[in-house]
Structures are given as structure tokens and as C-alpha cells.
Input
Amino acid sequence: GQSLEQPSEVTAVEGAIVQINCTYQTSGFYGLSWYQQHDGGAPTFLSYNALDGLEETGRFSSFLSRSDSYGYLLLQELQMKDSASYFCAEGGSYIPTFGRGTSLIVHP
Amino acid sequence: DTAVSQTPKYLVTQMGNDKSIKCEQNLGHDTMYWYKQDSKKFLKIMFSYNNKELIINETVPNRFSPKSPDKAHLNLHINSLELGDSAVYFCASSTRDRREAFFGQGTRLTVV
Output
């Protein structure tokens, strides 16, 4: 079956850089999406990678290596408001599988 | 102006009851989804509905059934509710390439 693995928790301090990794095993892989979810809120889309390489959107960047079945989300200049859960997910699929989420805790 | 809206936001009901959650999107998207998020925040896809074609996650009990009266709506019906159905249910829709999904605010279902 489809599966995406990511760490359950990551902690960092304000202003730092943090990387959240995601490895996947899926058939018919289209691409990798990333979502952010604050407690009590809905997931919101951050980025999508269809091809190998880095995609940059402001403080957030996402990377994909299809040959390694691996991707990551890079958050720079961390702010307290970045404390949230981050999910990698199959993008492009009709039945997208999500990873179990990484809880990012940002300390002052 | 809300892109994906679902109602109700909270639903408390007794075991054995039948309930529905409504979802509407005004983004003109072709694909809509229902997700279940459990207490450990695991997001599980339940259904995908695209141009009248329903794709079902085979692990979903047949007590759950989506109904789409038109392209902008995908409602979720749940029969004979069980305690284990307690969770947050999210409706979502996506662009044609399905790269980006827009989620509703969620419905917290509590079965007592």
C-alpha cells in the first residue's frame, strides 16, 4: 500500500532553520505536497513538487528526489506562529495518502 | 466568500443514530474529498468524487456514504454511528491536477 513516513516531532528555536523529512513508498507516484495545520484548524496547502529539486516560497522551501523516494520541507527564520503540524502527502492522486504528520514546536 | 464550507462545525450524537455532514465549495473544482482525522491527527482519505465518479478507500465501512447532488456539493452520510466514528471530518476540494487541496473548517463528531 501507500505510505509516507515523517518524524513525529521536531523542536527548534525562533530564528532557526528546520528541515522536516518525508520518505514515501507509493505506486503511481505523481508528486509530493506539504500542508500545515494549526491546532483546531484545517490543513492548508504549502507547496508541491512534481519534479526533482527545490521549490521556494518565501520562508518555506520544499525538495523532492524521486530516485530516493524522499522529500523535505525547509522552514527558515522560524517564528512562533510556525508551531503547527506539517503533513507530507501524495499530490496528484485521486486517493491521496497523507503522512502521519510532524509536530513542530518553536521555542523562544 | 468561504471557499470550502461544511456544516455543522460540531455534532454530538448517540450511538446507532444516522447523521449527515454537508459540504459546499465555490471554487469551481471538479474533485472533492472527505477525510477523517483521528485523535492522533492521522488524516485518512475516505472518498474522492470527480465528475460523478466515486473512488472509495476500501478501508471505509459501508455505513459511510457520500452523496453529491451537484458538482459544488459533497455530503457525507453516516448510518448506525459507533463510538469509533468520533473524529474530525474534513471536506476538501482540489484543482484539476489534484496538486493542491482546499479544506473546509472541519466537523468535530462526537458519538456518545
